[in-house]
Amino acid sequence: MSDTTTPTTKTRNLYIDAARGVTAIHIVVIHTAWFGIPNVPVWFQNLLLIYEVPLFFYLSGWASSYRNPSVIQSVKSLLKIWAQWIVFILAINAVCFLTLKLPVSFTPVRDLPTLIKCLFFDEKVYPGFYVIACSTWFIPLYFSAVLINNAVLTLINKSSKQAEYARTYLIILILTVFWAYFHHEYFSYYPPFIMFYCAIWMIGYLRRDKGESHKGFIIEMCICIAGLILCSYLDYRLLGYPYYDIQSAKTTPSGKFLFVSMLSILICRYVKQFVKKPNKILVHIGQNALYYFFGQGVGTSVVNAFSASLWVHSWLVSWIIGALVNIAVTAIVAEGTRLLYKGISYVISEIKKKITSPDPA
What we know:
- The chain is mostly helical.
- The protein has one domain (14-356).
- 72% of the residues lie in helices and 0% in strands.
- The protein has helices at 14-36, 42-48, 54-64, 71-98, 112-119, 131-135, 138-156, 162-183, 191-207, 214-239, 246-251, 255-271, 280-287, 289-305, 307-310, 315-356.
- It starts with 13 loop residues before the first helix and ends in a 5-residue tail after the last helix.
- The model is unreliable at 4-9 (pLDDT under 50).
């Protein structure tokens, strides 16, 4: 979501922020179709997954390529993300208590052990808004990918063949993803996910600002489409998944989902040359994409709770209305959480200053 360190205004790539902003909004749109509005066709739900979470990892790797890898800085950044998550969960749980006497209420977490599970990203528990749990899986994976890749790159950068070793590491990750998917030999649920998203992050890190010519873009797109067709066929023949089924390829990351992800990544890179001045609203959303990712769990749950009122006898129109409502609610939650965290950080900072400042007497 966010960079592993905070770059200065001069070095920050605003196009990456804007791309994050577009992706954050699209996640809202996706979850509206999957969890918010009923009766959305499965083929349409899968179509939306062409532009999805992997792009966040790619953009994170791309942004991180502007600075030297550092495990210590990564840990500091991830601890900040965790602190933002804690503020979000506590605030949302408080809101759930406030809704108990309303016509439509959301059940809060009432006991400390369960609340602690929420704070530690337990996907099985959540405060009131159930789609929060559907989104929680992203955060531990992001933490893992950032820490593992920064650790490996820190070691690689001590060698005399940094680029060669980094490319070799990426190739190993990709090959392992293919092997694990078709053999289904996992030690647990998470390893194949970690390998997949580490690979996506590394692709962003290694490509950095490499220019995209028209010819190169077309060639790479053709390779991706060919790979997608081949992997879709293998998925169908070996595992019985329908050709349009991207969700199954996502929940057990595979070559099919890798090529699907690369389509949006290539388009994102290619479009950059045409964007001279990124939209300020998209840049703002991208710089605060984490809050919007948190907030869509609330927004989608609200849309689901009122889906009957939003239904207009057309799944497409209902989905569009639901997405607009979701974006509005998500923005309110995201900006509210951002301001709350900012306020808490300011108070803590002032307290530290008073404690550490010398006594004028």
